[in-house]
């Protein structure tokens, strides 16, 4: 074979290999877990202020506001809340906001807690994620936080 033919063959094989290669998957979210304490203070009809302290993988304090709607049907209610979280995770510090939307439909709960897009500051710029909370029978609170944080730079 001549050199130009070998070069064409090599280029064709390389192109075929690249076009059939699987894309490299982006890393998935990281899971953080820990406990938190919350103090809810009435601030008017159906309104509360929130003061939280997170421990574990997320070390932070948070303040927020919550609105609650109760119904006359047992086990049905709703709430929304925004909290500003100030602290550190994975060795990086800053602030971010969490948005809560919760409903209880005749005893069946539905809860969404999401990082407000583009709310991260300082070392938490670019943070995205969702949080789940669990309340034990003894009233203690724990969280799992599935998040993505871009590399610094």
What this model shows, in words?
It holds the Pfam family DUF3224. With 153 residues, this protein is mainly beta. The protein has a single domain (30-148), classed as AOC barrel-like (Beta Barrel). The chain contains one helix and eight strands. Strands 1-2-3-4-5-6-7-8 form an eight-stranded antiparallel β-barrel. Strand 7 (128-135) and strand 8 (141-148) form a beta hairpin. The protein is globular and about 55 Å long. The termini are far apart.
Features:
single chain, 153 residues, mainly beta, AOC barrel-like, eight-stranded antiparallel β-barrel, 57% strand, globular, disordered N terminus, signal, SO1590-like_sf, DUF3224 domain-containing protein, DUF3224
Elements, N to C (H/E)? HEEEEEEEE
In total, the number of strands is: 8
**CATH first level: which class?**
Mainly Beta
> What structural class should be given to the helix and strand makeup?
mainly beta
Mean pLDDT equals 87
Q: How is the largest sheet built, in terms of strand order? A: 1-2-3-4-5-6-7-8
Query: Going by CATH, what is the homologous superfamily?
Result: SO1590-like
Helix content: 10-25%
Second CATH tier, the architecture? Beta Barrel
User: What is the molecular shape?
Assistant: globular
Strand content: over 45%
Separation of the first and last Cα atoms: 49 Å
Multimeric state: single chain
Whole-number radius of gyration? Answer: 24 Å
Q: Give a short account of the largest sheet.
A: 8 strands, antiparallel, barrel
Whole-number total of structural domains:
1
CATH T-level fold name: AOC barrel-like
Low-confidence stretches: 1-26
Supply the number of helical segments.
1
Keywords: Signal
Protein name: DUF3224 domain-containing protein
Organism: Lacunisphaera limnophila
Signal peptide: 1-25
């Amino acid at each position: 074979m001549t050199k130009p033919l070998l070069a064409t063959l090599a280029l064709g094989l390389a192109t075929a290999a690249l076009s059939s290669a699987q894309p490299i998957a982006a890393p998935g979210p990281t899971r953080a877990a820990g406990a938190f304490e919350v103090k809810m203070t009435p601030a008017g009809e159906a309104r509360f202020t929130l003061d939280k302290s997170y421990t574990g993988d997320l070390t932070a304090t948070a303040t927020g506001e919550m609105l609650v709607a109760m119904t006359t049907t047992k086990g049905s209610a709703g709430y929304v809340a925004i909290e500003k979280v100030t602290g550190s995770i994975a060795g990086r510090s800053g602030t971010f906001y969490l948005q809560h939307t919760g409903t209880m439909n005749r005893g069946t709960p539905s809860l969404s807690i999401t990082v407000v897009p583009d709310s991260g500051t300082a070392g938490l710029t670019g943070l995205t994620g969702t949080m789940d909370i669990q309340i034990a029978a003894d009233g203690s609170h724990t969280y799992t936080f599935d998040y993505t944080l871009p590399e610094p730079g």
